[in-house]
């Protein structure tokens, strides 16, 4: 996977590009995404080209679905976008820049590949082939592009738009981009007035990612800490339990939580753990509406991740399909004293190497805080990258061992005694090709003209594939990638078997893909539904929810001490404190 801001979407034609994993938001196969996805020179051009082809395709399809002109389709697309964050205005601004030339080209029935090459948003690097998503036109790509170039050769717009190579160059987006950059760069809440690494603001790494701060004026008040003087006067740990029972004078925190074995849950992970998701409605013309884009502002300020619906730290009802089930919700249900004690320290691009830096955003005080269950789950990026020589850039077993041991040593210096660490093995990503390659991608469903095999090939040609090893028609390469993934999983398994640490015990579990598939089949589902349809490589909401249930059941049967005992006072907590102050 790529890391941080380097992949946040560039400006190509409209703000729709912000919805795509283009320039600065990375992803990963059924997992997280490829570390160092791109070869030198391929990244910006590749992501800009992908975005252009997607947006032009959507405009063309909107015109077909609504039997309207390209100009009307552009206006319709902009009207779908919310006014929040100036998204609608930005769309109209970009439409002014590129709209006239785009309308001209679409009048000649030129496909999106040709259009984007002619307006210079797709470029052919020296010695590289023409990358195209759609089948070549009858007259051939070269002739079609020359024809398109003649149509727009006198365009003043195309000569004067070089200054808008980034969406963040637009003055009305500068402040928003700076906020997003800060959150991605530091992996900490942008809105954190007391500096305790927790926030009362939902996005920009706020409480969608870690428990909500109930007092932004005091750095000593935050989720997960042991109570201060049994929280007689205030809720110092934000679990919604404080004050004194007037019947007997005993503090509620002491009465309900003293012997409850309270503990939080922390995820160290990749884009699968952060729950990367692009709603397919954003690129399916027949399904587009105002409602389709209502979550766009939240998605943009959460890096196109949805941790609040994820399988480890999800706590809100899903609005992206499926349902929400998570280890945090189950741990909270088991013991209401665990309310709000979660941290999703995941990143698009997380791998065993860059998690070493990512985990420094961990908020846990060995002396003041409760123990924690840490889930270590980088399930694909150590074998996934977008380089042509993909195998030589995979993490080796020796590197994996070194990286994970450094992570565990750091955790041992931060976690309170009595914590637990669960190492999760890598996924077998051959599942992606097997289930999807012959199916139609959302962008190809209207005209039955784009399969996932074509999409994977296009990404590879642009040198921006999140995983050349698994998203490939080369069966031998897919097998080699899975073999390396198994080797790395065995490294984790051996570490769990042989290593000991002072402040936590350590366990290993395979990524439960097979069990998730079986459970979904029992519910009447099909395997392809377990993969995100828009990107074709992340786990879907269904996978996340089923995975949470399976992992919880394993822990309950094999490692019950990890979860702690069930709190006998849960009902009393509900009676006195209702929803404990909300999310």
Automatic annotation (TrEMBL):
Query: InterPro entries given for it?
Result: AOAH (IPR039676), AOAH_Saposin_N (IPR048593), GDSL (IPR001087), Saposin-like (IPR011001), SaposinB_dom (IPR008139), SGNH_hydro_sf (IPR036514)
Q: Does the keyword RNA-binding apply?
A: no
Its keywords, alphabetically, are: Disulfide bond, Signal
Q: Which GO terms describe its biological process?
A: fatty acid metabolic process; lipopolysaccharide catabolic process; negative regulation of inflammatory response
The signal peptide here is 1-27
Domain Saposin B-type stretches = 45-126
Identify the PROSITE patterns for this entry.
Answer: SAP_B
Membrane-spanning ranges: none
> Which GO MF terms does the UniProt record name?
acyloxyacyl hydrolase activity; calcium ion binding
**What is the name listed in the Swiss-Prot or TrEMBL entry for this protein?**
Acyloxyacyl hydrolase
Gene that this sequence comes from: AOAH
């Amino acid at each position: 996977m790529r890391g941080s801001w380097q992949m946040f979407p560039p400006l190509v034609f409209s703000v729709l590009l912000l919805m795509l994993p283009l320039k600065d938001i990375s992803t990963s196969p059924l997992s997280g995404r490829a570390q160092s996805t791109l070869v030198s020179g391929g990244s910006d051009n590749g992501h800009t080209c992908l975005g252009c082809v997607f947006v032009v395709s959507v405009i063309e399809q909107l015109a077909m679905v609504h039997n309207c002109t390209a100009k009307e389709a552009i206006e319709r697309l902009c009207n779908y976008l919310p006014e929040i964050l100036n998204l609608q205005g930005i769309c109209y601004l970009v439409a002014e820049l590129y709209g006239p030339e785009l309308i001209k080209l679409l009048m000649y029935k030129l496909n999106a590949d040709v259009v984007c090459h002619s307006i210079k948003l797709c470029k052919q690097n020296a010695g590289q082939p023409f990358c195209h998503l759609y089948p070549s036109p009858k007259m051939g790509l070269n002739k079609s592009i020359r024809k398109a170039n003649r149509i727009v050769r006198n365009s003043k717009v195309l000569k004067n738009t070089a200054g808008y190579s980034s969406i963040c160059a637009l003055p009305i987006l500068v402040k928003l981009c700076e906020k997003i950059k800060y959150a991605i760069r530091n992996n900490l809440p942008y809105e954190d007035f007391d500096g305790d690494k927790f926030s009362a603001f939902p996005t920009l790494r706020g409480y969608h990612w870690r428990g909500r701060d109930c007092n932004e004026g005091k750095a000593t008040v935050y989720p997960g800490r042991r109570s201060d003087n049994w929280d007689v006067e205030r809720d110092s740990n934000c679990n919604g339990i404080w004050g004194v029972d007037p019947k007997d004078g005993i503090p509620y925190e002491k009465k309900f939580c003293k012997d409850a074995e309270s503990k939080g849950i922390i995820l160290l992970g990749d884009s699968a753990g952060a729950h990367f998701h692009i709603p397919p409605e954003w690129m399916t013309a027949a399904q587009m509406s105002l409602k389709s884009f209502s979550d766009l502002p939240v998605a943009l300020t959460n890096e196109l991740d949805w941790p609040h619906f994820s399988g480890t730290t999800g706590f809100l009802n899903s609005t992206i399909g499926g349902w929400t089930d998570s280890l945090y919700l189950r741990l909270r249900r088991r013991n209401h004293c665990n309310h709000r004690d979660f941290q999703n320290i995941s990143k698009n691009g997380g791998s065993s190497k860059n998690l070493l830096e990512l985990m420094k955003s961990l908020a846990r005080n060995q002396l003041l805080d409760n123990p924690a269950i840490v889930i270590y789950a980088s399930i694909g990026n150590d074998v996934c990258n977008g380089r042509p020589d993909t195998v030589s850039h995979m993490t080796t077993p020796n590197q994996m061992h070194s990286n994970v041991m450094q992570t565990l040593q750091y955790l041992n210096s931060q976690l309170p005694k009595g914590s637990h660490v669960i190492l999760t093995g890598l996924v077998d990503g051959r599942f992606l090709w097997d289930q999807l390659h012959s199916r139609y991608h959302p962008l190809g469903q209207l005209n039955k003209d784009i399969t996932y095999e074509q999409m994977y090939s296009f990404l590879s040609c642009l040198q921006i594939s999140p995983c050349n090893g698994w998203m490939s028609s080369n069966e031998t390469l897919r097998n080699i990638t899975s073999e390396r993934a198994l080797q790395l999983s065995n490294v984790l398994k051996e570490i769990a078997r042989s290593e000991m640490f002072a402040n936590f015990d350590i366990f290993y579990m395979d990524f439960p893909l097979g069990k998730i598939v079986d459970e979904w089949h029992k519910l009447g589902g099909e395997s392809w539904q377990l993969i995100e349809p828009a990107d074709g490589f992340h786990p879907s909401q269904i996978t996340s929810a089923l995975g949470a249930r399976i992992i919880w059941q394993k822990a309950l049967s094999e490692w019950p001490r990890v979860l702690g005992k069930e709190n006998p006072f849960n009902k009393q907590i509900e009676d006195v404190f209702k929803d404990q102050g909300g999310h």
